[in-house]
Amino acid sequence: MRRHPQATAGDLTWMRQAVVSGEACASAARDAGLGAAMVAAAPHGARTDARRLAPKLSIQAELAEAVIGGAWLDLGREHTTTAVLEAFADAIADAVPGRRDPKSALQEEAARHGRGVAYELVAQRGPAHARTFVSRALIDGRQLGEGTGSSKQASEIAAAVEALERLRAEEPG
């Protein structure tokens, strides 16, 4: 609120969501090397599993949350707050009033024109520990975007980005 005093309550809600999203937490974990630390700290017999799990976005996000919680309990509010603000600086800087995640932006854009959005998972490839997903973004049943990602959510976001660009390109003047 102090950074954006003119932001609406809705904007602040979206901004908070962006800063504490799984992707933001996973990014902070990657930057801090938490996945590698997890693998290094794993008992010898569990290293294979740790190596398999460390790249997963959900695991990285959970590592960040666990470290933040542990730091809060061990070091206290002041030290933890400083470290969290530093670790999430990019996410905080990217969270500006009016900016929405691609799926929300597509939903809002389509709704302005009285159109509906749906997502369709069209493929899952690879082994369970390294799966790739392909999704389509449909506007009133018509495919406007397709995206690939390491999770269903990531593939839908990629599809939404493409669909949003095409939808905006179709708008008159």
Considering the chains and any ligands shown, give keywords for the structure.
alpha+beta; 3-stranded antiparallel beta sheet; about 170 residues; 2 domains; Double Stranded RNA Binding Domain; 9 helices
Task: Describe the fold and architecture.
By secondary structure, this protein is of the alpha+beta class. The protein folds into 2 domains: 9-94, no CATH class; 102-170, Double Stranded RNA Binding Domain (2-Layer Sandwich). Helices cover 60% and strands 14% of the residues. It has a 3-stranded antiparallel beta sheet with strand order 1-2-3. α2 crosses α5. The protein starts with 8 loop residues before the first helix and ends with a helix.
Count of β-strands: 3
Cα-atom Rg, whole angstroms? 19 Å
Q: Which stretches are low in confidence, meaning pLDDT under 50 for 5 or more residues running?
A: none
**Spatial strand arrangement across the major sheet:** 1-2-3
Sheet-strand content, in percent, reads 5-15%
Helix segment tally = 9
Largest β-sheet summary:
3 strands, antiparallel
Mean of the pLDDT scores?
A: 90
Helix-strand sequence: HHHHHHHHEEEH
The end-to-end distance, rounded to whole angstroms, is 35 Å
> What is the structural class?
alpha+beta
Helix % is: 55-70%
Count of discrete structural domains? 2
Indicate the overall shape. flat
Could you give a short description of this structure?
By secondary structure, the chain is an alpha+beta fold. It has 9 helices and 3 strands, in the order ααααααααβββα.
